[in-house]
Each structure stands twice: as C-alpha cells, then as structure tokens.
Automatic annotation (TrEMBL):
The chain crosses the membrane at residues 51-73, 79-100, 107-130, 150-171, 183-209, 221-239. The gene is cruF. Residues 1-19 have a biased composition (Low complexity). Its EC number is 4.2.1.161. Residues 1-24 are annotated as: Disordered. This is Bisanhydrobacterioruberin hydratase. Pfam families: Caroten_synth (PF04240). It is an enzyme of class 4 (lyase). It comes from the Archaea. Keywords: Lyase, Membrane, Transmembrane, Transmembrane helix. It comes from Halorubrum rutilum.
Length: 303
C-alpha cells in the first residue's frame, strides 16, 4: 500500500524491483542447470507422486470418460479434448521421465522415424481402411488434422514402448534373442489393443462400423501386428546399447504408465461388460507384479 504522496511502496520503487529480481534469482538458483540435475529433479517429482499419477489420475479419468459417454458430464466438459490430453500427459510422465536418461541423438532420430510412421499409417488408415480396417474418430482427442489427432504419438508410442519394456523385464536374459523379443512384444502390443479398442469403441472415441470382437473387426489386430513389428525394429535401433535396460532395471516407476493403463481401460471395460478385455488387463497387472513393478504399499495414499 503506498503512502499518500505515492512515493513509498509503489510497484516501480527500487525496493519492489529489487525484491522481484531477488525472487527470480532465488528461483533460478533452485532450478537445475545441467541435464543430469534436471533428470534427478524429474525423477524425484514422479517418485514422490506415484499414487496420484498412476492410480488417482486413471481412476478419475475412467469416471470422467464413462460419465461423458453416459451423459452425466455436461457440455462443454464432456470429452473435453484438452482435459483428455492433459490427463494422458500426466499418466505418461513416469515413462517419459524414466526413459530420458537413455535418450541420445541416435534415439531421437529413430523415435522421430516412429513418430512419422505413426502419422503416416493413421492417415492411410482413416483414408483407406488399411491396415486396421475402416474406422473414424468420433471424438476429438485434442486438435485434429485430416481426421487424425495431432497428439497421436502421445497415444500410440507409449503403448508400444510399455509393451517393449515389460517384455524386456519378463524375458530377462532371453530378451537378447531378437526373434523371441520381436514375437513377445508383438503379442504384448496386440494384447494391449485387445484391452484398448473395445473400451474406446464402447466410449465412442472411434468407430469401426461394427466388428466381431466387441465392435472391433479382427483385421484391426492384423494391422497391429504390422505396427508392432515396425515399432520393435525401430526401438531396437533407437536403444541399441544397454543404457535403456540398465535404466529399466534401476528405475522402479518406469512402467507406472502401464499401471495407469490397467486401471483406466480395465475399469472402462468392466463398466461396459467386456469380460475378455478385463481379463487381459488383469493379466497385465499380474505381469507387472511378477516384474516387481507393482507394490500395493507404494501405490497406496498412505504408503
């Protein structure tokens, strides 16, 4: 509050300016100034919020999505694209933060190739029906371009990376066998889509116009075999050394995004009465327990 003459305590006074500058300097001093420091800060942030990220967000997300589909959530909040995208980004954060130390120029280049493939195959799929079968997005998942979400890599790539990482853990030393690794990851990716697509179709995210498997045509899963093969070959080249496997071994939260996947899509399929997708989601949950990536004490709000 200024004095009557306006000379003291004004916004432009030296004291005020000095305080602002000092606050900015203090903030800068607390921020890391190296990549390793930034990674350590992000690790700590995710580690301290595992329950919120991997359990609370997917639970709230499942309720919000089902509520939107059932008409319980009023406009304009039903299926609000920015809310959906924000929730997905939060749930993806353990995977992104966990992978960061293994990212180098080689990995950036190959992940870029995978992103380009993601857009290309989806654009072709929307236009021609190949390789997944004819489908269309019936809900805008963020900004759309030519009928495809601009944020598509945020939805697609983590799915295949999660499957890739889980298989590396479960296979152990056998993961060095390229053909076994390829076959196992393809099976895991297809199984994840057995959970994802029926739930998404039930919500009305997208539509195939009908199909024999909970509204999904079997051709969709043949398409996922193609995309999973491309993803595995690309990820093998992106992370050719042992850095990713070493990080996976030491980073306990790296697969928390898959915990979110099990809760979110398992819960949605349970609501819509899709027993086989629920069973497959539960199987992924058991795989996470076997890989020592799920501990009820860690994922408890009182843990």
């Amino acid at each position: 509050m200024s004095d009557p003459d306006g000379s003291a305590g004004s916004a432009g006074s030296p004291e005020s300016t000095g305080s602002t500058v000092g606050g900015v300097d203090a903030l800068r001093a607390r921020l890391p100034d190296t990549r390793r420091g930034a990674e350590a800060l992000l690790d700590r942030t995710v580690r301290e919020n595992r329950f919120t990220i991997a359990v609370l967000f997917p639970l709230v997300g499942a309720l919000a999505l089902v509520g939107s589909a059932e008409g319980w959530v009023p406009e304009p909040f039903a299926f609000h694209p920015w809310f959906v995208l924000f929730g997905v980004l939060v749930m993806r954060s353990p995977l992104v933060v966990g992978t960061l130390p293994a990212i180098d120029r080689r990995a950036v280049g190959w992940v870029g190739v995978l992103i380009a493939y993601t857009y290309a195959v989806e654009l072709v799929g929307v236009a021609t029906g190949w390789p997944y079968g004819s489908f269309e997005y019936t809900v805008d998942l963020g900004p759309m371009l030519a009928g495809v979400p601009v944020a598509l890599p945020v939805f697609f790539i983590p799915l295949v990376v999660n499957a890739y990482l889980l298989c590396l853990l479960l296979l152990g030393s056998r993961a060095s066998n390229g053909w076994l690794r390829l076959a196992t990851v393809i099976a895991a990716v297809v199984a994840m889509d057995v959970v994802l697509d029926p739930g998404a179709v039930a919500l009305g995210f997208w539509s195939f116009g009908g199909g024999s498997f909970y509204g999904v045509p079997l051709s969709n899963y043949a398409g996922w075999v193609v995309s999973a093969t491309v993803a595995v070959v690309t990820l093998d080249r992106a992370f050719a050394g042992t850095t990713l496997r070493d990080r996976l071994r030491d980073c306990e939260f790296m697969l928390d995004d898959m915990v979110s996947f099990v809760i979110l899509w398992g819960g949605i399929n349970l609501w819509y009465g899709n027993p086989l997708p629920v069973a497959v989601a539960a199987a992924f949950g058991l795989g996470l327990v076997r890989a020592d990536r799920f501990d009820a004490r860690v994922f408890s709000p009182w843990g």
